Amino acid sequence: MLIKLLTRLFGTKNDRVIKRLSLVVEQINALEETYKALDDEALQALTPSFKERYVQGESLDDLMPEAFAAVREASRRILEMRHYDSQLIGGMALHSGMIAEMKTGEGKTLVATLPAYLNALTGKGVHVVTVNDYLASRDAEWMGKLYNFMGLTVGNIIHGLDDDQRKAAYNADITYGTNNEFGFDYLRDNMKFSREQLVQRDLNFAIVDEVDSILIDEARTPLIISGPAEQSTQLYGLVDSIMPFFKEEADFTVDEKSRSVTLTDEGVQKAETKLNVENLFDPSNIEVLHHVNQGLKAHYAFKRDTDYIVKDGKVVIVDEFTGRLMEGRRYSEGLHQALEAKEKVRIENENQTLASITFQNYFRMYDTLCGMTGTAMTEAEEFMKIYGLDCLVIPTNKPMIRNDRPDVIYKTRKEKFDAVAEEIINVHKTGQPVLVGTISIDMSEQLSKKLSKKGVKHEVLNAKHHGKEAEIVAMAGQKGAVTLSTNMAGRGTDIVLGEGVTELGGLYILGTERHDSRRIDNQLRGRSGRQGDPGISRYFLSLEDDLLRIFGGERITAIMERLGLEDGEPIEHRLISRAIENAQRKVEGHNFDIRKHILEYDDVMNKQREVIYRQRREALRGGDLHDEVLRMVEGIAWNISSQVAVEKALPASWDWESFNQLMGSHFNTTLTVDSSGNDLTRDTLSELVNEHVLAIMNGKEALIGSEQFRQLERYVILQTVDNHWKDHLLSMDHLKEGVGLRGYAQQNPLIVYKKEGFEMFQAMIERIQEEVVAILFRIQIAEPEQVEEVNPDRNQSDLSYSHNEGGATKQPARKADSKVGRNDPCSCGSGKKYKKCCGQA
């Protein structure tokens, strides 16, 4: 009662914010006549003036009234559209980093020009995000006229652009594009090998159109970039075929404690001969070296029926502590495939995820995020908890007069569709346009057949052709029009009423089924009643609809039976509509919990992703990673001395044999240390190691010069990081799949995932450092005239992009191997004939 009283006295929070922003609207309106009096040149001159004032320290908030007034005047001249006061409020809400809920037809596209112009004055870039290429292109061209008049540049990111075109678009003041394109460009940039290849700038200010669709509906499925796994699979088989030629001690040594295998010089030479590789330690052969190491480890450090078993044609890990089978788990970094090659079972094509991110975590990286939609308040809690975004309901320019009628409920689905068809025919006879919303394409096609038999001319919409779709939706308000559409089709395009339709009652929205989310239902309703137009909306339901069947169907059935309703006779009552909305709230809450659960797990991965990508980006921008290499070398030197130097023992008794093994495996060298005295300590040994190996490194650098050695260091680090990061992503996926079972052991799966994920990440960082140092010290430097520039570019055509349920990725088909006959044994090592293995793809 007290809350209601206070609300009546002081208004809601929404009312108070609108009141405060209305005071700024008065300031903007006060400038209107002054700006109208300016000629075009004087109006355009305001942009450099605003930029200069910003550089001098004036805030965007202080510039806002003048900047908004300038945009409004430019729009009036160029687009012949003057921003309403309600649109100014919407623009201020966006600039403040809020979500503006604006009804359909209130001009959200024009609203975005206000904060986009204001924030573009910083020179840091503004991204306007839409749901499809058609809308991105339409809005960039349409609103681009306004921005260009005011001296700003506009870019458009759509599918099919090359890197140069993308870079130019991102360097524009304002960039339009789809959520998928922005996200994939971010991931691609974090796979590049030079600063010049980056296309995106820092993520500054984003305006997300249809924000609920992008940040909520698509939040459960990540963007994934995958590479073709079959290349690696064939390489595992090839490497496995040469393993019998290697002899322990002569070609490699095994450290049983750490289960690591180190090639000797003879082993390196043997691998190069067998694989027809000129230099195994050449930067371009890092992948081959990795496979050889994993093959040796599989054959000589892991034992069948001890570390793993072969069951039903699969390699299954045996838990070293419990002896139980760990089905569903796989060794990382290609070791599992190497074991599969060793045991001549099918080498599984791992989903080689190279990079992935959820929209939730991508958009949270922007300095300022805001959005617009016609339906936000039903998801206000999620917007605040996940993104920290407040929602503000913007008042309509004209009062809403649409008549939202109570739902009509039938016993069976057949009765419902008979009634729907009859209603459409009756309304169509009057000339009033009808937009029929269905929740599936299949349902709209069934209804289409029914109408065709009755001779009713109509259009059927689905989400396959955005350009054509927008045209059909735009015509849906014409006299006599009947349009069947899935609930989301044509989103972003206004339905303008044709001549004489207002007198007929406006657009009739007929829903054939309630969606799980009230928001989707409200979007369909919002198609009608734009800008003060009349309109009608009504939902036709049946007890066989999924929502009613699962939630509360029995109770409503009992009411219908008590009323003694005949077949085909509907029930209509606002209490039932309210019961349905309560059911929808339950489903929405459940879906929110799922998205929150997914985000909790992805947040663990996101922290790791931020570390890797931040260091990677710094590497590209700085270019010089020599200090990082020196830190790696110093760290490994310290680790070696720590393992050898025993406190309170004389240096002569230290394990010098292990010392030289460690020096050989890490630095490809040996070091004779005078251990006769007693003044040798762990610290002084570490310094001796460091001095010795740095002298070797400086010698390599002197051969080719500092500049090329810096380039080599950068390439080795980036390539090694990418290889290990790719494998780490796979390991984390397997951990997430298996961690759910920990709940049965009274463990919190999320806590286990965080703990083990962190340990795996730390282990990966250590492996990266060890591998980078090992490669740099084993690498053979050619004479200066023989050195070729490293070209690390990935072939973008080899990458696959996905954003769908489960992250399933369509991989390119295998290419036929011209060296292998159809009836020859397959080169992948499966033991099958080529035509029945890799050749059948």
Automatic annotation (TrEMBL):
Cofactor(s) demanded: Zn(2+)
UniProt catalytic activity: ATP + H2O + cellular proteinSide 1 = ADP + phosphate + cellular proteinSide 2
Mode of membrane association: Peripheral membrane protein
Pfam families in the record: P-loop_SecA, SEC-C, SecA_DEAD, SecA_PP_bind, SecA_SW
CDD domains named in the record: DEXDc_SecA, SF2_C_secA
Homology family: Belongs to the SecA family.
Protein task: Part of the Sec protein translocase complex. Interacts with the SecYEG preprotein conducting channel. Has a central role in coupling the hydrolysis of ATP to the transfer of proteins into and across the cell membrane, serving as an ATP-driven molecular motor driving the stepwise translocation of polypeptide chains across the membrane.
Quaternary organization: Monomer and homodimer. Part of the essential Sec protein translocation apparatus which comprises SecA, SecYEG and auxiliary proteins SecDF. Other proteins may also be involved.
Protein name: Protein translocase subunit SecA
Organism, as annotated: Desulfoluna limicola
